[in-house]
Amino acid sequence: MALKFSERMDGIKASEIREILKLTMQPEIISFAGGLPAPELFPVEEMKKVSQYVLTEMGQEALQYSPTEGYLPLRVKIAERMSKVGIKADADCILVTSGSQQGLDFSGKVFLSPDDVVFCESPSYLGAINAFKAYQCQFVEIDTDDNGMIMEDLEAKIKSTEKAKMIYVIPDFQNPSGRTWSLERREKLIEIANRYNMPVVEDNPYGELRFEGESLPAIKSLDTEGRVIFLGTFSKTFCPGLRIGWVCAETEVLEKFIMVKQGADLQSSSISQRELNAYLDMFSLDEHVENIKRVYKGRRDLMLYTMEKEFPKEVKYTVPEGGLFTWCVLPEHMNARDLMVKAVERKVAFVPGGSFFPNGGHENTMRINYSTMPDDKIIEGIKRLGEVLREAFE
Amino acid sequence: MALKFSERMDGIKASEIREILKLTMQPEIISFAGGLPAPELFPVEEMKKVSQYVLTEMGQEALQYSPTEGYLPLRVKIAERMSKVGIKADADCILVTSGSQQGLDFSGKVFLSPDDVVFCESPSYLGAINAFKAYQCQFVEIDTDDNGMIMEDLEAKIKSTEKAKMIYVIPDFQNPSGRTWSLERREKLIEIANRYNMPVVEDNPYGELRFEGESLPAIKSLDTEGRVIFLGTFSKTFCPGLRIGWVCAETEVLEKFIMVKQGADLQSSSISQRELNAYLDMFSLDEHVENIKRVYKGRRDLMLYTMEKEFPKEVKYTVPEGGLFTWCVLPEHMNARDLMVKAVERKVAFVPGGSFFPNGGHENTMRINYSTMPDDKIIEGIKRLGEVLREAFE
Predict the structure, then answer these.
(1) Contact assessment for residue B245 and residue B234, using Cβ atoms and an 8 Å cutoff
(2) Band of residue A13 on the pLDDT scale cut at 50, 70, 90
(3) A268 and chain B in contact, CB less than 8 A
(4) Which of B134, B165, B263 sits opposite A130 (nearest CB)?
(5) What is the sign, positive or negative, of the torsion defined by CA atoms of B285, B287, B290, B295?
(6) How far apart, in whole angstroms, are the C-alpha atoms of residue A315 and residue A312?
(7) Are residues A266 and B127 in contact, defined by beta-carbon separation less than 8 angstroms?
(8) What's the pLDDT at B34?
(9) Which of A15, A315, B89, B387 has the fewest other C-beta atoms within 10 Å?
C-alpha cells in the first residue's frame, strides 16, 4: 500500500532551478543559471582565524544548544546594520534564521491558511513561491515596470480578491528581474497595506549590493503600523554556506516567528552565529562588501557589453543597478525552455523565466546571473548564448 | 489594526521547556530541566583541527551553497552508521537536516492535514508535539508501560479513530520517560502499521547512548513495506551546536522530505556538514561515544543513588538503561508545577511532566535530566529537590 501524504504535498514540486543547478554542476558548463555568490571572494583566511578564535574562547558554548532567538551579540549587530537601509531596530526585533529562505517559510507558516491569497510581483522569486505553496495559498500576480510593482494594479486586485492576505515584494535588485522600486512606489505600498490591513513581507537579500545610483530606504523603514516583515541574509554579502539570515519585525509579530522556529529546528547553528559575530568584530564587512560590489559591477558591465554585441537586437534586457541578475525578454512566440536545451548542448546555462510566474506563462523570458562566472567565461558563455539566440531567430 | 495570523497559529504556543530553560540559565541554578549534553565532553580541540582542515582544503566549497540532500560523503557515512541499529541503507535514503527537530517538522509537513490524528506514547516528546501541532493535527495518546507502547491499546484506538494518520514513537530511552521498547512491541508495531497502512515516525536521538543491557534493533530495521521514517541526530553523540541530524527513509518518501527542505531552508550548513564529515574521517566517533556513555552512566548511577536516599518512598522513578532522563511519578494529588516554583526558590530545576501529555493531565510527574550536571551538583541538587518533595508530603 502506498503511504498517504498530506494535502499540501499535492502542490509542492521540486524546484526547477535546483534541478537545473544539478545539471549545470558539470565543470565544463558555463552557468549563468544559479544565484551563487562568487566563491573566490569568500573570506576563507578570515574564517580560519575566526573559527580558531571562537573554538578557543568559547568552544563549549559554541557547540551547545543556544536560544531560539539567536546569539544576542549578533542580534545587536544585525539590528545596528538595519540603519543602513533606514530601519530603526533593536535586538528584540531580530530573529536569526537559517538563511532568508527560512524567513520565507516562516512567513507562510505564520500568515497563510489554505486558499489565502498572496500578492506578488510578476515575475517573483521562485523560492518564495515554493515556500508559500506549502501552505496551500493562491497567488495573484501584480504587473510591474522599471519602477517596481504597479500600485494601481495592486489596489484593484486587492479590492476584487476575497481572501486577500499578504503582500510579498523584493524591492531592491529583484530576483529575477534585477529591477528596483522607486521611492514613490515604496511609500504608496505602505499606504495600501495600511488601508487593507495586510502584512508585507519585504525580502531583501541584495540591497547592500548597489553598484551605482542612489540608495533607497527599505519599505520597512516607512512602516507606520508594524506590518512589514523584513527578511535579510548574509548569504550574498558574506557567504551562504553558514546559513545565517534574519527576520526583522515588531516584537509581537516576531514572537510568532520565534514560536514557529522552536518547532521547526529549535535554533540556527550556535557556532556559525558566533563565527559571524567574531568576523564582524575582527574584520570590516563593509570593506568586504565594497570588494564584492566592485567585482560584480565589472561582471555586469562586461556581460551587458557582450550581450549588446552578441544578442539579436530583438532581445530586451534590464540594466540592474545592483544585485546578481539581468532579465531577458524575447519575442512572445519564443520559448526559453526550448532554448535552454540547445544552450546546454553548447555548454552554457541560464534559467527559463517562466518558472518565476506562479500562475504560468511568460515562457519567452530568461534569468541570467552575472556574479558567479569569471570574465573569460562571461564573454565565452554570452557568445555561445548569442549563437543559440541568433539561430532561433533564423 | 492587528495583523491576522494563520489559523494554525491558534494552536502554537511557546515551548514551556524553552521558557524554563531561560529561567534556569542563571548560573547559580542547578538545572535538571534541559536535555543538554555535557559540554565538557565536547570535542573542542578536535573541532579546531577539523575546521582548519576544511577551510584549508575546501574553503570555497564549504562556504558556498550546496545540494539540498546534504554533503554526499557525509550521507554515505550516515548510511553506514545505520547498520549499528540494524538498518540497511545507502546514501540515497539519507537527507541531512538541521537537527532531528527539523525531521519532526518535516514529518508533520509531509503527512499531516488538519484534523489528522497522530498516535503517540503517553507521555511523548514535547518538541514533537509542538512541531506536529503546527499542522493542526489531533493527538491520541497510547498507554505505555516499562516495555513501551501497549499494542492492544494502539490497535483499539486506531480502529475507533476516523482520521487515523501517523504513529510517532521514541523506542529507545524515551524522552521524557527514559523507557525502552521490547523487541516484541517493535515487531508488533510493524504488523499494526502494515495492517492499517500508517506511516511510523521513529525518533531516535539517544539510541547510541546505551549504558547496559542488550541493544535492540531499530523499528525501521523491521520495516517490510518502507513505511518507517527514522530520525537521527549528532546532537547527543557529538554536539548540538552544529545542528546536524538526518532523515532515513525509502527514496520515494525521502523525495517528499527533500522537496519540503528546499522550501524550508534550501540546505543545512555546508561547512558544518564538511566539518562533521572530516571529524568522522580523522577521529573515532565510536570512542567519543564510549566516553560519553561512561560519564552519563556514572551520573545516572549517582543520581538514582541520591534519589533513593533523599526522595520520599512514595516517589516512583524509572531506571533508564541509557539516554538522558529519568521520570518521576508522584502521588496523584500532587502537582509538579507547584513544586517547580518551590524548587526554583531553592535554586534547583526540573521539567513538570504535564507538558509531555498533548491532551493534558498527569500533573503529578517530573522529568529529571542527569547528563548535564557534574557529580557535586547532582548530589546537592537532588538533596534540595528531596527537601522540596518531603515538605510537600508533610
Answers:
(1) yes
(2) confident
(3) yes
(4) B263
(5) negative
(6) 6
(7) yes
(8) 87
(9) B387
Dihedral pair phi/psi, residue B317, rounded to 5°: -145, 155
> B63 in contact with A at a CB cutoff of 8 Å?
yes
Distance in angstroms (rounded) separating the CA atoms of residues B105 and B22: 23
Chain segment B202-237, per-residue pLDDT in tens? 999 999 999 999 999 999 999 999 999 999 999 999
**Separation CA B318–CA B291 (nearest Å):** 23
Q: Which of residues 13-42 of A touch B (CB under 8 A)?
A: 13-15, 18, 22, 34, 36-37, 39-40, 42
Domain map of chain A by residue range? 12-43+287-393, 44-282
Distance CA B23, CA A85 (A): 35
The structure's pTM equals 0.96
pLDDT-derived band at A18, boundaries 50, 70, 90: low
pLDDT exceeds cutoff 60 at B353: yes
Convert the pLDDT of each residue in A105-127 to its tens digit.
999 999 999 999 999 999 999 99
Rounded Cα distance between B250 and B230, Å, is 10
A44-282: which CATH topology?
Answer: Aspartate Aminotransferase; domain 2 (3.40.640)
Interface probe, candidates B269, B277, B288, chain A, greatest A C-beta count within 10 A: B269
More confident residue, A189 or A22: A189
Q: Which of B60, B134, B260 sits opposite A109 (nearest CB)?
A: B134
Q: Cβ of B195 under 8 Å from any chain A Cβ?
A: no
Asked if residues B99 and B244 have their Cβ atoms less than 8 Å apart, the reply is: yes
Decide: B169 and B120 in contact? Cβ < 8 Å.
Answer: yes
- Residue of A123, A13, A164 lying closest to A367 (CA atoms): A123
For the record, the C-alpha cell of B204 comes out as: 531516535
Q: Are strands A316-317 and A245-248 parallel, antiparallel or unpaired?
A: unpaired
Q: Which residue has the cell 520559448?
A: A335
C-alpha cell at B101: 527537530
Which pLDDT band, with edges at 50, 70 and 90, does B168 fall under? very high
CATH-assigned architecture of domain B12-43+287-393: Alpha-Beta Complex (3.90)
The pLDDT assigned to B11 comes to: 85
